[in-house]
Design brief:
The complex is a heterotrimer. Chain B is an alpha/beta fold. Chain B is built from ten helices and twelve strands. Chain B has an eight-stranded mixed sheet with strand order 6-7-8-3-9-10-12-11, sandwiched between helices. Chain B has a four-stranded antiparallel sheet with strand order 2-1-4-5. Chain B is globular. The N terminus of chain B is likely disordered. Chain C has a domain of 78 residues. Chain C is built from 13 helices and twelve strands. In chain C, the strands form two sheets. In chain C, strands 6-7-8-3-9-10-12-11 form an eight-stranded mixed sheet, with helices on both faces. In chain C, strands 2-1-4-5 form a four-stranded antiparallel sheet, covered by helices on one side. In chain C, a hairpin with a 2-residue loop joins strand 9 and strand 10. Classes of the chains: A mainly alpha, B alpha/beta, C alpha/beta. Chains in contact: A-B, B-C.
């Protein structure tokens, strides 16, 4: 029954985070950027300001609600880029083998050898800060696990009889990869993508913390944490709430990933 | 029935086919060794005929099947299918419409994420049947022919038993109406009480659709039951070929005789003197002379020195053994 | 029963249950048979019929979700089904040994095969390692491994399937057990190699007086190897016969169906190509065994009684047993 608990809590938290991402602007009390009021600076949580206010007197609740958009966009979009790159490279490498496999393996090892955050930093340095560069930087640097897993899956699946049968029926390579191999590798790829999304959200926070993320004053959970650096002892709520948002979202995604792994495991589905 | 060939002309003819694979080799390991998987094989199958192919692991039967299907290139020699040479610039889809395959393992050979309908309909669409009604009709008709109900088309493979799965595998092989079907151990992965159903089905479909079969099996009982002619392979070569009666009643090659003697059945108890010794050598390093000589109960010095050629001992009965003349007595199995 | 004609192994009313989320199911249901000293007995049946788990229970190797649910297993009269693990371990290898279908999974990939054989002598006979290693080479010689001294230094992956199975036999017979259980020992091997391995097993066991319990799906192999055969279907023994009679006069409709459905070599020459007799339907799964006689949905001779009443094992002439309301 642990499986169900993983899935329920993880799914619940993920749905909550997505809901906040989509409906955040309606849930916010005030405009997160314009409604600065230095008279209200660094107020603790109260009935009026549920999560308190920041140094410029902006409502933290509203900023967390708005910030979800950026954090989740970064998580979802850059993880989609990662998954697409990793799956494309991994499946083709596993299916074709030969020099292409050697090349992809080399590239994957290179990616794994360089800490991805450093790599993302370098890309950001070239592209300059901003949401688009952030999406690209994080989307290009975290595909190596997806690639490894989908390559291993493709290797295992391609020796199955049904792949051989498809070749005998005259299917071309790409048709085989799309209709025979991909559907049978999707389970683990979805799990990795879900787990990776949490990592990407954390990476966004880290990059924003280093001042390379979304340009202020747009709120993202990471940039809010970054701004809260100096007041962590005097006004802890500035960092507590965006931190909690990140923590709960990442926790939710990880539990969801674990739960999905359990139900997508083909062993538990086939009768044999 | 056939545009290109009369009844006598072969549907399949394999002409002196050799397939070598380089093993190892590379930057650090020096020159690759050559694995002679198939080493000079000739055979033919007429329309409507069944050829049984018998042999143990490493004999090259799987590689031979792959080269007939156009999935492995010939090193030398060629495969001619329905008047056209397989491989090179021949369209793979043309080959696919002429020759299909039934696989051994009915569990691994069906895509677990596709319904039966998709498994059968996708190949039809790929090969130009675009009318949805026609696709549905042909899928339903095919399912009926293999003894399944058309309403089972929307189930997934795991909802079927092993025998039913093999029926689906047969349906997939026949959906394009091929002329030749390669059956690779079609019953050996099935429960014993299910095998007769599948063997009967294959024979009925053959009669109904005028199919030719290449029956690959190590079960000599199944091969005898299903084949018109039989070829016995050992380490990449055919060592004996002939009509089923000659092969199983008057086998001339010691390897064929050893295969019969090895059948675990009280019937073969008297044949101990015909049994082969030791293990099958690696095809990477075949013994000199006749490749069967180290295991042969009848080997003489000459067998170690020179390899015999496949030569006719009777009409259509070919043997490659120096002492074939001496084994004229029937084997009593 | 006196010591002289007491059977070596006697399995009495053995029940093994499979526990799943959906409940407990009778995987083996009232199986009884005996093996005398030096006798060869076959247990034949299709996948899931309970033959392998019967063997595992004799070895005391049943693990969750399988469990012993009743019955006795006696070795030379001593009940062994409830022995503590330590005593069972002492029994395994020393008095009962087992070989499996795929020797690669039963051998330790990280140890030389000679060492693995030698371990048996150290463990069960208290031999010194030096002594045990020379005994291991002797054991390899007995299983007819060429160049045994060199092969003893090889690791399992360096040997062919046939050679690995010879090593397994050497390990199994190292301590001269009273009973060798062979579970599909040759299914993974080529036919000519299978034949050699079976001959070797029979020869070595006959010389030592070791009894064999051979488990297989192959009716031909079992009747060829063993003196007596028990046919299992869906967790029960349905027929017990002398091997000679299985093909010639099978009594249970299932055995009769099996024999008639097999294309045996020579049949076509004698009778022409006949349509094979099919056994209708599918092999039932453990969780869905039919009530009454478990073969009745597939049986051509079923009547109403078969659908409700479990037939008893009936003794026929010549010591054969059959479990059928309409046998013969």
């Amino acid at each position: 029954m642990k499986i169900r608990a993983n899935l329920a809590i993880g799914g619940g938290l993920t749905v909550l985070a997505l809901a906040v991402g989509i409906f955040g602007p309606w849930l916010a009390h005030t405009d997160p950027i314009m409604d600065a009021n230095l008279m209200n600076a660094e107020l603790p949580p109260s009935r009026e300001f549920w999560f308190g206010t920041d140094q410029q007197g902006r409502d933290i609740w509203s900023r967390v609600m708005y910030g979800a958009q950026i954090s989740l966009t970064v998580g979802v979009v850059s993880q989609l880029i990662n998954t697409a790159i990793g799956t494309a490279l991994g499946v083709t490498a596993g299916y074709w083998g030969g020099w292409w496999d050697d090349f992809v393996n080399g590239l994957t090892n290179l990616m794994l050898a360089i800490p991805s955050l450093i790599f993302a930093l370098a890309i950001m340095a070239i592209l300059g800060p901003g949401l688009t560069s952030l999406l690209i930087a994080l989307g290009l640097t975290n595909w190596s696990y997806t690639c490894r897993i989908s390559r291993a899956q493709a290797l295992a699946v391609k020796s199955q009889g049904y792949v051989q049968a498809a070749r005998v029926l005259g299917y071309g390579d790409f048709r085989i990869m799309f209709t025979q191999i991909l559907p049978n590798t999707l389970g683990p790829i979805i799990v990795i993508a879900t787990l990776g999304m949490g990592g990407t959200i954390l990476a966004e926070a880290a990059l924003s913390f280093l001042g390379l993320g979304v340009r202020p004053p747009s709120p993202s959970w990471g940039s809010m944490l970054s701004d809260a650096r100096e007041t962590i002892t005097t006004a802890p709520w500035l960092s507590l709430f965006p931190g909690m948002a990140i923590f709960l979202t990442v926790l939710g995604l990880n539990l969801l990933g674990d739960g999905l792994r359990d139900i997508l495991d083909p062993q538990s589905r086939s009768r044999r | 029935m056939d545009k290109h060939a009369g009844a006598d002309q072969a549907l399949l003819s394999v002409e002196d086919l050799a397939v070598y694979f380089p093993i190892g080799g590379g930057v650090f390991s020096g020159r690759p060794q050559m694995l002679r998987a198939v080493d000079g094989v000739s055979l033919s199958i007429k329309p409507g005929e069944s050829l049984g192919l018998v042999g143990e692991s490493g004999c090259g039967k799987s590689t031979l099947a792959l080269s007939i299907l156009g999935l492995v290139d010939a090193t030398t020699g060629r495969v001619v299918l329905d008047g056209k040479t397989v491989g090179g610039d021949t369209d793979r889809r043309d080959v696919a419409r002429t020759v299909q395959m039934v696989f051994q393992d009915p569990y691994a050979s069906l895509n677990p994420r596709q319904t039966v309908r998709r498994t059968l309909a996708d190949p039809l669409r790929l090969h130009g049947v675009s009318n949805a009604g026609e696709v549905a009709d042909r899928v339903a008709e095919m399912l009926r022919q293999v003894g399944l109900r058309p309403d089972q088309a929307d189930l997934y493979p795991h909802e079927f038993s092993g025998g039913q799965r093999q029926r689906i595998g047969i349906a997939r092989a026949l959906i394009l109406k091929p002329k030749l079907v390669i059956c690779d151990e079609p019953v050996s992965a099935l429960d014993v009480s299910i095998r007769a159903q599948i063997i009967n089905l294959l024979l009925e479909l053959q009669a109904e659709m005028g199919l030719s079969y290449l029956m690959i099996s190590h079960d000599l009982g199944v091969v005898e039951h299903m084949s018109d002619r039989v070829a016995v392979m050992y380490l990449g070569r055919i060592v004996e070929t002939g009509g089923w009666r000659e092969i199983f009643e008057q086998p001339r090659h010691p390897y064929t005789r050893a295969l019969i003697a090895a059948i675990p059945d009280p019937l073969t108890r008297g044949l101990a003197r015909e049994k082969a010794r030791g293990e099958i050598p690696s095809p990477l390093n075949p013994p000199p002379g006749c490749t069967f000589n180290p295991r042969c109960p009848h080997a003489i010095d000459h067998c170690r020195a020179a390899a015999p050629m496949l030569s006719a001992i009777d009409d259509g009965h070919l043997v490659s053994c120096w002492r074939a003349d001496e084994f004229a007595t029937p084997i009593s199995a | 029963m006196s010591g002289a004609n007491m059977p070596l192994l006697s399995v009495e009313d053995l029940h093994i249950s499979l526990t799943t989320d959906a409940g407990r199911f009778p995987a083996v249901d009232g199986v009884s048979f005996t093996i005398a000293r030096g006798e060869t007995v076959g247990l034949v049946g299709e996948s899931g019929c309970g033959k392998s788990i019967t063997a595992l229970s004799i070895m005391g190797l049943l693990r969750d979700p399988l469990g012993l649910a009743g019955g006795k297993i006696k070795l030379s009269g001593q009940e062994i089904q409830n022995l503590p693990a330590s005593q069972l371990r002492a029994l395994r290898g020393k008095r009962i040994a087992m070989i499996f279908q795929e020797p690669m999974t039963a051998l330790n990939p990280l140890k030389a095969v000679g060492t693995q054989i030698a371990e048996m002598f150290v463990l069960h006979q208290g031999a010194s390692w030096r002594e045990a290693e020379s005994k291991a080479v002797d054991a390899l010689t007995q299983v007819k491994v060429p160049a045994p001294a060199q092969r003893a230094k090889d690791f399992p992956h360096q040997l062919s399937g046939g050679m690995r199975q010879r090593v397994m036999i050497a390990i199994a017979l190292a301590c001269e057990p009273d009973l060798l259980i062979a579970d599909e020992p040759t299914t993974a091997l080529d036919v000519t190699v299978q034949s050699e391995i079976v001959d070797l097993m029979k020869e070595l066991c006959a010389a030592r007086g070791t009894a064999i319990l051979m488990i297989s799906h192959d009716l031909g192999l079992v009747t060829d190897t063993c003196k007596r055969v028990c046919v299992m279907y869906a967790g029960r023994i349905v027929e017990q016969q002398d091997s000679e009679r299985i093909f010639n006069s099978p009594q249970h409709p299932y055995t009769q169906g099996l024999v008639a459905s097999l294309p045996r070599l020579g049949m076509r020459a004698r009778h022409g190509r006949r349509r094979l007799t099919e056994i209708a339907g599918v092999v039932p799964g453990i969780t869905a065994y039919p009530v009454g006689c478990r073969f009745h949905p597939r049986c051509t001779r079923r009547t109403e009684i078969c659908e409700t009443v479990v037939p008893e094992l009936t003794a026929l002439a010549e010591g054969s047993l059959v479990r059928c309301h309409h046998h013969g």
